[in-house]
Task: inverse folding
């Protein structure tokens, strides 16, 4: 649950490092990628009105290739940006919790 995720992020200063954060990034990224693939499949189904496969026609091949390129670009860009943001936020939490008040 969310309560566990917050506890793991706080525990990074006690020797766990960024391992729990990286695990959460991979877990969330896998889920987001799955949703993106599912939504792309639904988009193709609505566009063509049926299930399509490569090799049926040039139009379908072009659209499938375009969809694959869009998926790769989205996954790589979002993974990079969100991973950097998550690690940055964890470093702020780590430095603020280790400084004396």
Result:
């Amino acid at each position: 649950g969310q309560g566990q995720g917050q506890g793991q992020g706080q525990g990074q200063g006690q020797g766990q490092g960024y391992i729990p954060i990286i695990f959460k990034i991979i877990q969330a990224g896998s889920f987001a990628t799955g949703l993106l693939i599912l939504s792309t499949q639904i988009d193709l189904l609505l566009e063509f009105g049926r299930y399509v496969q490569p090799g049926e026609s040039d139009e379908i091949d072009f659209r499938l290739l375009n969809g694959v390129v869009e998926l790769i670009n989205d996954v790589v860009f979002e993974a990079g940006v969100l991973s950097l943001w998550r690690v940055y936020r964890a470093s702020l939490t780590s430095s603020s919790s280790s400084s004396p008040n």
Observations:
- Residues 58-98 form the longest helix (41 residues).
